[in-house]
Amino acid sequence: PDFQKALSGQTSASFLPQDSQETLKAVLLLPLWQNDQVAGILRISRSSEFLSSQLIQQRNISWIILLGFVFVFTGISLTYQMRWVRPLSTISNRLRNRDQNPYRPPISTSRNIRTFLHVLEQTNAKGEIQNNKRRVEEKTISAVFHEMSDGILIVNQAGLVQFLNPSARQLFDIPDNFPYQRSVVETVRSHHVSDLFNACVQTGEAQTIFLEIPGKKKYIQTIAKKLGDEIGGDILFLFQDISRVHQLEIIRRDFVSNVSHELRTPLASIKAVADTLQEGALNDPPAARKFLVSMQAEIDNLIQLVEELLELSRIESAQVPLARRPVFPSHIIENAIERMHLQAERSGLKLKSVMPRNLPEVFADTPRVSQVLMNLIHNAIKFTPPGGEILISAELSEDMVAFSVKDNGSGIHPRD
């Protein structure tokens, strides 16, 4: 049958018993073609033992090739692991834990890895320098904000507070545990600050208002300014306590008003006397003399006022050195009475002095202390009606000498 199959042009293979009948042999029949016809048959036969040995040999060769491939692949994997994966994993772990452990680049035999590590080390060093500079700047800015006497408040575009420094908390009585992310009104409890925030957001320009904190008698200059868009466009509030400046402004205004009032009275009197004399009083010698005495008294008041202003200016500019020397209190009092005697006499007042004879010397600047007494005497002359009396005294009080000026005029109201 196998030959018939081969003659029909098909390949035939079968196992046939050998002569000894103990083993088999493999028989392969191949048709040989010529001019599209089977011209013959090629018969190939091999014993099963030979084929088995060949199969075993091929299997062993296959195992050897497979094991060799495994060893080569394992070696390549280990080499790749050692030269690439492990160094990169170590780098990754150390970079992640850089804050806990100082960064130390691992050693690698790969030139590419060494180049990469060198670049990474340089980049890391630059990054550390930048981070250190940033941390120093943040600490400096934080220290400045916390130590500033002016209040600082930062609010985002939604109107929620992002930052408060201690001065702002103290200014508006905000507790230390008061949380952020609260509205402006809820934080500082001032609708004026809220209106200022809205105006700054709408216009994008710096806004300034002056407000007074009830109950504290503090006058605050509040400046709102929009920060750059690169930092979110938050609004920075600066609260400057100008209570002292405001108080000085009020004092200056009152001072100018008082000086103007003080100048108006003697100038009006002098003008009235001059007008009266011009209208004919010069022809009446007794009346003219009386008017001239009155004019001279008003001029003395003006001179006294100007001298006080000049003295005040010198004192405020710290240009008044004190020349202290031993001097008897009686000399200071007599000097003041002598200079103010004429003014008191013109006003119809009596100047008297009372002091013990055994008063010791004092260590003082005689002209300055005399000026103090003259100011008090001048004030007494101004507010004591004609016929009154002004008493200047000095007495020993422990290791000091106390001077006093007393009059029987209208006195000073208790509220003043």
Write the layout of secondary structure elements.
Blueprint lengths: L1 H6 L4 E6 L6 E11 L2 E11 H49 L14 H37 L3 E5 L5 E4 L1 H6 L12 H5 L2 H13 L3 E7 L4 E9 L8 E7 L1 H36 L6 H32 L8 E3 L1 H18 L3 E5 L7 E3 L1 H17 L6 E9 L2 E8 L9
Helix pairs in contact: 7-8, 9-10
Which descriptors would you attach to this protein?
alpha+beta, 21% strand, 416 residues, 5-stranded antiparallel sheet
Task: Describe this structure as you would to a colleague.
- With 416 residues, this protein is of the alpha+beta class.
- 53% of the residues lie in helices and 21% in strands.
- It has ten helices and 13 strands.
- A five-stranded antiparallel beta sheet has the order 5-4-8-7-6. Strands 1-2-3 form a three-stranded antiparallel beta sheet.
- Strand 6 and strand 7 form a beta hairpin.
Task: Name the strands of the widest sheet in spatial order.
Answer: 5-4-8-7-6
Count of DSSP helices? Answer: 10
Radius of gyration (Å): 57 Å
Q: What proportion strand?
A: 15-25%
Largest sheet: 5 strands, antiparallel
Q: Averaging pLDDT over every residue, what do you get?
A: 82
Given the helix and strand composition, which structural class is it?
Answer: alpha+beta
The SSE order reads: HEEEHHEEHHHEEEHHEHEEHEE
Spatial shape: rod-shaped
- How far apart are the termini? 149 Å
How many beta-strand runs?
13
- The stretches of 5 or more residues where confidence is low (pLDDT under 50) are none
Fraction of residues in helices?
40-55%
